[in-house]
Amino acid sequence: MGRWEPGARERLQAAALELFATRGFEQTTAAEIAQAVGLTERTFFRHFSDKREVLFFGQQEFLQAFIDGVEAAPPETSPLEVIASALQAAASFFPDERRSYSRMRQSVIDQNPPLQERELHKLAGLATTVAAALRARGIGEPAATLAAESGATVFGIAFTQWIRDGETRSLAAIASDVLRELLDLTGAATASRPFP
Amino acid sequence: MGRWEPGARERLQAAALELFATRGFEQTTAAEIAQAVGLTERTFFRHFSDKREVLFFGQQEFLQAFIDGVEAAPPETSPLEVIASALQAAASFFPDERRSYSRMRQSVIDQNPPLQERELHKLAGLATTVAAALRARGIGEPAATLAAESGATVFGIAFTQWIRDGETRSLAAIASDVLRELLDLTGAATASRPFP
DNA sequence: GTCTATAGTGCGATAGAC
DNA sequence: GTCTATCGCACTATAGAC
User: Fold this and answer.
1) Which of A86, A140, B110, B123 has the most CB atoms at less than 10 Å from its CB?
2) How far is CA B155 from CA A133, B81, B182, in A?
3) Is the pTM of this model over 0.85?
């Protein structure tokens, strides 16, 4: 395992997930991950600002897919229709082949509060970025933030369902259903106007 | 400042906020906080599992207020009406006298990603607990989680507005408005049924 | 690549409350 | 005496400075 083997980042990420899954996140040191792929601890921290970050790659592309979905919606589309478009675009980042990998990664995250915190932070960052994209389309506040956060919530719930044991529907299909449920929930309330 | 002065916890919390606000979170060590109130670093970590936690007290009571609001709603109330009740109860935890304190605390959090992560985690925990309370009322999934997460989102947006410079309305009033906006956003979409 | 500060833990000793 | 809060010390790993 030479000094200039290519793909150091990717090898570190793969080794990290495997070690985290077998030994646990706390019980795995950054030095061990580095050693597993023939690198030093110092190199690990040159690639990832902290130990948790090694599990959160591909965020940039995922976020971009979301934004692309926003921009793909025709002008004058209602905020939630824009969100629906963004969800479909984002879902394409998780084809069915990736499901078992996602399950493994999520089970590691679910067992470690520090990793959960990082994940929530990433999701919050997503909402912030989407809100900005909505404002760029002329949607005001707090509608933009509400729509963006709702989109993130729907995505989160759909993703959780997608990796549940026995689930076979695509993420896109599930996301669509969950968004529908959100509309029913709030729409039904609005229809009868019980709120003063 | 003796070994058995009462209220060690509270004194640590107050000293921590002050030091964080003046020097910054990173630039303040746990030892310094402890020293400021005549205790040792080891004692600090007996009270707070980590350095961030010192800023997140009163969570238990806040969460309880939310749950009380859920349980105060009459049976058969729609999920979002229950959330409206919970929001009003939770808002009572932040009377206007607390606004300037909240502003100071939030400005510290806003400047430190690790603190933001912790805050998001607490908010996510809130949503999880509220969702459980909704399920206990017979509300199914994903409606319970959607409603709870929406409630957390609305609370977050309202709280941000509440501490904004020049804002004078009560948190309860703002939360009510934001919830209304959410209903308009989703209700309008449902009315015209543009989603297949 | 080395060196260091700090977070956070484990364990045993001690000081006071009761 | 018991119980609990505090302390002191040794230790590891993270993360950043040099």
Assistant:
1) A86
2) 22, 14, 12
3) yes
Distance from CA of B45 to the nearest CA of A (A): 17
CATH of segment(s) B58-192: 1.10.357.10
3-state helix vs strand vs coil in chain A, percent to 5: 75, 0, 25
If you measure CA to CA, which chain A residue comes closest to B153? A149
- Closest nucleotide to residue A25 (Cα to C1')? D13
Domain positions in chain A? 2-54, 58-192
Residues of B in contact with A182 (CB under 8 A): 146, 150, 186
- DSSP annotation of B75 reads T
pLDDT digit string, tens, across residues A4-34: 667 899 999 999 999 999 999 999 999 999 9
Residue nearest to nucleotide C6 (CA to C1'): B29
Residue A193 — very low, low, confident or very high, per pLDDT cuts 50/70/90?
very low
Using the CB atom, is residue B4 less than 7 Å from strand C?
yes
Give chain A's largest Cα–Cα span.
69
Contact assignment for A150 to B145 by CB distance below 8 Å: no
Which of the following CATH numbers is that of domain B2-54: 3.40.50.720, 3.40.50.2300, 2.40.30.260, 1.10.10.60? 1.10.10.60
How far, in Å, are A166, B35, B93, B170 from residue B49 at the CA level? 38, 18, 25, 33
Please state, in angstroms and rounded to a whole number, the distance separating the CA atoms of residues A69 and A67.
5
Mean pLDDT of A90-108: 97
What's the pLDDT band for A89 if we cut at 50, 70, 90?
A: very high
pLDDT category, B18, cuts 50, 70, 90? very high
| Interchain pair A182, B117: CB under 8 A | no
